[in-house]
Design a protein that fits this description.
single chain; mainly beta; twelve-stranded mixed beta sheet; six-stranded antiparallel beta sheet; about 5% helix; about 40% strand
């Protein structure tokens, strides 16, 4: 690791208090930083003065820092009117140099108070101009003479001087050498942020279409090869066994999907899911993928039909855990050129981004291998192209590993990702409700919530796709929660739908409001608090939906998925 600063200090008596006294020969200035007000989320920044130069150092995290952490040093030279920022990594180093003074900020100065407005935020700097010293830990706001005492944004304290002292120090600021690559401030900002993000590529431009040969495995879920994409359900479902990074619990995790038509013109249901692979279960959802959906536990409805693998069987089977429910638009990508001249600049692809932090920290754990699947229902030979990443963003610089704080109980999933292999649609709600059991132990859990995704389907005027229907969730036979999935903003996504049906009045079919989804969007989960049922007793949960009746061979159905997320 390159070193950018060499400091030898013998601290003399501390000068502190509500109003810090600043010795004329002070050379060490300590600032407290606040995120949400004084004495909340406090961190420390140190400024070292050496003549007309100051060196700014942010407190390093305790222990091993996170992946992508850069040792940063800022050197300000008041005589040369320059700011030099250096970022040092084990394998590389970067820097930029810009003027200290700037004329793009208008200041209002009243005594020691300097005020400006930046991006609609009011910034106030309380300076001490009586001292001959020039010290600021925030040089990027331009040249100000004196020592910064406090900094507030929109009236909220963000930084204040905690102490100023004279030390017997040899402070030697070292400017970049030949080992540093010079970049612009924006380039360095981008580099530093990108290196902090942990990206796990899951699927890379994979085709989901009809007509591919199934990649059947000799064995069970534990025999799936690592990092190999497998195709099932005629090619409409892809599967991969991956090792996800085990990251500190302060990370936030997002699924990012890029999708475009490779020949299919229609709006299709898609789902990204994980398959629980618990060794003591008698059967996993992979058995239905690798063989036939009928090998999964069967729920026989009052309508006489079989519904395969849709509900939890305690101790024997868990349904797939849905991460993202998404819907393809009408033909974006493949049909763009054909539909030129409509006055719409068609987008090249559909982009979906959804947070999955609660599931990552529970279902995935990061320490174990996980089976991730993606499905787009279609019968087209070209189908769709899909790219998927999981991106993880830190909220702290500490790399301390912590045990997962959450767990999951998969309950139900009627989204028939094995549609093209014979799995039935979720039509049971016309004559039945869906009931599962769960138990939340008082010794293990402090809170619990249901993560619920619901979308209605039935693609004609009176089908459930176009009619709001209240979803009722009952616990032990009593109504606990209600939710009516509905989207009225579908017209915002017209530029994703080049071959959507168009009508005489100027509307497109992709404009119509729908039951919890729009062509080209992901459906957001809703959450219901289950903490009152943490009592160690067995409870029933029932989902009831007033599903519409079939009409002339057409039928409505509901894709609902539910998983309990528990905090320990």
């Amino acid at each position: 690791m390159r070193r950018t600063l060499l400091v030898f200090c013998i601290l003399l008596p501390l000068v502190a208090g509500a109003q810090v006294k600043i010795p004329k020969d002070a050379n060490i200035f300590t600032y407290w930083q606040f995120e949400y007000g004084e004495k909340t989320d406090t961190s420390v920044m140190t400024v070292m003065r050496n003549g007309a130069m100051i060196t700014i150092i942010t407190q390093n995290p305790e222990g091993k820092p996170i992946q992508g952490y850069a040792q940063t040093t800022t050197i300000v030279d008041y005589e040369r009117d320059s700011i030099t920022v250096m970022a040092t990594y084990p394998d590389s180093a970067y820097y930029y140099c810009i003027p200290l003074s700037r004329n793009d900020i208008e200041w209002t100065i009243k005594g020691n108070r300097h005020t400006c407005s930046v991006n609609s935020n009011t910034l106030t700097f309380e300076m001490d101009a009586k001292t001959p010293l020039n010290v600021t830990p925030l040089p990027h706001y331009g040249l100000k003479r004196g020592v910064l005492r406090s900094y507030t944004r929109n009236g909220q304290l963000r930084m204040k001087l905690a102490k100023a002292e004279k030390t017997a120090c040899g402070v030697g600021p070292m400017l970049p050498n030949d080992g540093y690559r010079r970049v612009t401030p924006r380039e360095l900002d981008r580099i530093m942020k990108e290196r902090l993000v942990v990206t796990t590529r899951i699927f890379d431009h994979e085709q989901l279409c009809w007509g591919k040969k199934n990649d059947n495995i000799e064995g069970d879920i534990f025999d799936i090869p690592m990092d190999t994409v497998l195709h099932f359900a005629g090619g409409t479902l892809i599967l991969k066994r991956v090792k996800l990074p085990w990251l500190p619990s302060h990370y936030q995790h997002f699924v990012e999907l890029h999708q475009q038509s490779n020949g299919d013109a229609y709006d299709r249901t898609g789902s990204v899911f994980i398959i629980p692979r618990i060794s003591y279960k008698d059967i996993t959802f992979f058995d239905g993928i690798n063989h036939h959906p009928d090998s999964l536990p069967i729920f026989t409805g009052k309508d006489g039909q079989k519904y395969q693998g849709i509900e939890r069987v305690v101790g024997k089977y868990d349904p797939p855990v849905e991460l993202v429910r998404f819907f393809t638009p009408f033909g974006v990508g493949h049909f763009n050129e054909r539909m030129k001249g409509y006055g719409i600049d068609w987008r090249k692809e559909t982009y979906y981004r959804q947070e999955i932090t609660d599931l990552y920290n529970s279902a995935m754990l990061g320490r174990f291998e996980v089976i991730i699947g993606a499905w787009i229902g279609n019968y087209d030979g070209g189908g769709h192209l899909l790219t998927m990443d999981i991106k993880s963003y830190p909220n702290d610089y500490s790399g301390k590993q912590t045990l997962p704080l959450t767990g999951i109980i998969p309950l139900f999933n009627t989204c028939n990702v094995l549609e093209m292999a014979g799995q039935n649609y979720g039509k049971l709600f016309a004559t039945d409700s869906l009931t599962v059991t769960f138990t939340l132990d008082t010794d293990d859990y402090s809170s619990a919530k249901l993560r619920y995704i619901s979308t209605g389907h039935g693609g004609w005027g009176e089908g459930d796709e176009f009619v709001p229907k209240q979803n009722t969730i009952l616990i032990d036979g009593k109504v606990a929660f209600t939710h009516t999935p509905w989207r009225e903003d579908c017209g915002c996504y017209r530029d994703l739908n080049p071959v959507s049906g168009n009508f005489w009045n100027g509307l497109s079919s992709s404009d119509f409001s729908r039951s919890g989804w729009c062509p080209g969007t992901a459906t957001q989960p809703v959450y219901f608090d289950l903490t009152p049922w943490i009592d160690g007793k067995e409870h029933t949960m029932t989902v009831a939906i007033p599903q519409g009746k079939p009409v002339e061979g057409m039928f409505s159905h509901w894709a609902v998925s539910g998983v309990i997320i528990i905090e320990q």
